[in-house]
Write a structure and sequence with these properties.
binds fe (iii) ion; binds zinc ion; alpha/beta; single chain; 8-stranded parallel β-barrel; 9 helices
Amino acid sequence: MLNIGSHLSISNGFEAIGKQALEIGANTFQFFTRNPRGGAARKIDTADVEKLQSLMQKNEFSQILAHAPYTMNLCSAKEQTREFAFNTLADDVNRMEYLPNNLYNFHPGSHTGQGVDIGISQIADALNRVIKPNIQTTILLETMAGKGSEIGSKFEELRAIIDLVEYKDVMGVCFDTCHVFDAGYDIVNDLDGVLDEFDRVIGIDRLKAVHLNDSMNYLGCHKDRHEKIGMGGIGIDAIERIINHKYLRNLPFFLETPNELDGYAKEIALLKEKYIVF
Ligand code: FE
Ligand code: FE
Ligand code: ZN
């Protein structure tokens, strides 16, 4: 079975988001842990969380993905920004314990002129201050497009972060197809080659989720503009190969395409059609 969902708004609570996922034909979803502009996350309503958990169990959901705010930058040159990011990370990881055995994803960060090496050590340092060996969440670094001073557009950079984390068991990677393509990895003409490289550099076992997006731009553009499935530089044929690839086909796929709910429902239906069930 294809594990597929989209980004959804958590504003009406946990059970509501689960119901919304079902309405669009999804069996997973992604949500922001808090307003992307930052600020306090809402208090967790444990009864509401329990309703979501039973809905997920009944409908055989795969793991869900909580996404950190985009503004969370653990390797900014500004200490205040780093401190704010650290507090967000720590609070998010604590809160994820209410939803055990799921995924938490964040953008590694932008070094804002400090250089990649300093950025990598600051990211790993924050993770080491937050991660306790017994946490029940898998923490994912997202592959990035490489715009500005973003870290994570090369597999080697993600590997370097993981290498510096003490409790590596909880670390994984989220593969964003738009970002990887924009970073210059040719998943259209050489998906096998790219995934073999991922395996060689990071290890395929670290791959825990896919952000399934087309790209508005071309290979290696470093732009990060998501496009609807099949409407961009990646195209439907490559996306069909992606969802069926032996290294990817059992992972949860999350759409972050420019769509409202009906658009997500259509893309989910299309992808289910393209998924080969053995
Ligand atoms: Fe992201
Ligand atoms: Fe993404
Ligand atoms: Zn993006």
